[in-house]
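Worked example 4.2. Below are the chains of a multi-component assembly; read each line carefully before continuing.
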Amino acid sequence: MDLDFNREEQAFRDEVRQFLATELPDDIRHRMQRGDHSHVRDDIQQWQKILHAKGWGAPAWPKAFGGTGWSKTQQYIFENECAMADAPAQLAFGVKMVAPVIMRFGTPEQQQAFLPRILAADDWWCQGYSEPGSGSDLASLKMRAERDGDEYVLNGQKVWNTLGQYADWIFCLVRTDATGKPQKGISFLLIDMKTPGITVRPTRLLDGSFEVNEIWFDNVRVPVANRIGEENQGWTYAKFLLGHERTNIAGIGASKRELRRLKEMAASQPKNGATMLQDPAFATRIAQVEMELRALEITNMRVIFAEAKKQAPGPEASMLKIRGTEILQRLSELQVDLLGADALVRSGAGEDGEDAERATSAYLNMRKLSIFGGSNEIQRNIIAHMILGL
Amino acid sequence: MDFSFTDEQQMLLDTTRRFIAERYNFDFRKRVRDSHDGWSRDTWTQLAELGLLALTIPEEDGGIGAGPVGAMLVSNAIGEGMLLEPFLSSAIVATQAIVELGSPDQRGQWLPSLASGDLIAVLAHDERSTQLDALDVHTSAEKVAGGWRLNGRKSAVYHATAAHLLLVTARIQEGELGLFAVRSDAPGVTLVPCVTVDEQRAATVVLENVSIDSDARLGGRADEALMAVLDYGLAALCAEAFGAMERILAATIEYSRSRVQFSTPIGSFQALQHRMAEMLMHLEQARSMSYLATSHCTNSDPLERRAALSAAKALMGQAARFIGQQAVQLHGGMGMTDELNVSHYFKRLLAFELRSGTTDQHLEIYRNRLAAA
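Applying the procedure described above to all two chains together yields the following structure tokens:
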């Protein structure tokens, strides 16, 4: 048993740190630090191109497709270091989500057409899963895809589509058979966002951001050649995809970054002649979350170690998701609590108010963590069924 | 990064588990608990025969030299079986105190008989004042012609009534702590027996003008070494608690599958499923912290070591409380009875929370480190 990274893993971590220190553009880093998402598309794409030039564009892909061929541990180190250095997260929908599905179930033509462009940030991908009536119960989705010769004709609505307003392509789960078990009549389609009949309407969120969209499909014609695998087998591919969304599900790097930030803020916030970091009540709350993060980091490494032995990611990812999002949410809560009345001001406070604007916006925005990607309640169901056998 | 165990380490765990399954089932344990001494000499001899009492004695001293990881795995099993014998007290803590502080003569004198089970030793350290500061010892050692004279009072020393040898911490002068070996039947030593909340035997040790020879002192200044010994023992205590937590959760899941109400097993109710999912997450975080404690308990940087151990004890204490309370709750009335093992695990976990620094005390230690940074 050894909880520390071995010599090679440490050398790799140092290499990643060095790369981040020299290659992450300052303007992007500063926008990330300020929580400024005004350049989100450009920042993510520029960073992806820099990673791609280094050969690090796809940490989890095999080398045959232009990936790094890194181990799970290396991927984990890479993602954490990037998050701690305030690098933008890679756009998951392409690199992490649709790409593994295309690699595993796509035709050689699909692989040729899509994978290199994902790697090079030529295409921006988004996801069409949830519908107004289908959230946690995703398999009940209703968006129709009716066969007409070599095309499907799509009609319906998708919601909670993240960053689709910038998208070139969307991967969608659609209903191709409504007669049997819901899971058996779903197909997985790749759709060009420029196709006539698609309307994207951004949804204004509680923090004022436009991060998610409603998308309407009105007689949208999609070539059958853009279907992944078999008709009506889409649920299988969607489940496969879910298993690949999870290497970084605990968000250890992001939490470490926010903890560091919280401590810095607390150390400069005066209280009774000392600082908030020395205030017993507040420091206890920081200590509590720090201990839990320390434990989760080890738990995460245990899961990675176990996965490396048996390959497939297991239901343990549900634990990482719940605890990881709880910790990140609490860190954002603590930043708001620390600032107190200063956190009331959302905009217009000038440079002095930068911390407060960022912290308050983040607190509002972070509520999503326990809702998306399978709500934390759904994750508890998974734990009860898959791990506890109840 | 490596979370595997060597074949030898795995064998230690398997051996201890098999021994407990065959020789120390719950009914046997109840009989031991209700016996006069409250622990079993036969079991003690059998543990010695398995080599487990030599577990943490270095190989050059004739032991197994299994180190903290070996101690953790055996302690997992000890916690699962809730053994009442002085394994942690004698085979881990007192043994480590002698390994850490004993002269070659003292090691040669005591370690072989500790390994064989003929000698039982316990560290008599805790006092009211050490609850807040582990080194704030009021028991005094006064230098007199030919040796030392000890006076003081040690509270709730686990297994003191079973011990032949008490390893007593005492203040020599301001800023210097010493460790002294005292026969438990020496004149001036009084043991006031008590039963702890987890039904182990303990005693208040009262020392009144106890005279000991100068060669009964172990090592010189004991402060730093003593903290290392306490941390080694704390890691093993955490591992015991983990074993108990794992079993009490398993018992709860099992019970929820078999207990039928409203014509269905209660484990099919989502409110209870989510509670048990929460218990599992506490358990897995506790396992990680037990690993952290084990891997840091011999860290040569005392500040890092203390921080890791305090974080582990605090978080595991919280986990123990949640898992223990919910296990009783989910067992309903049956969880309140002495008949099921659940209430026994519950009390073992409560003792864990309170021993060797409470959850709150360790949280405070960890917190103070933040302010100092």
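Take a moment to check your reading of the output against the notes. The interface with chain A takes residues 1-5, 9, 69, 253, 256-257, 267-268, 270, 273-274, 276-278, 280-281, 284-289, 291-292, 294-295, 311, 314-315, 363-364, 366-367, 370-371 of chain B (CB under 8 Å). Residues 228 and 301 of chain B are 10 Å apart (CA to CA).
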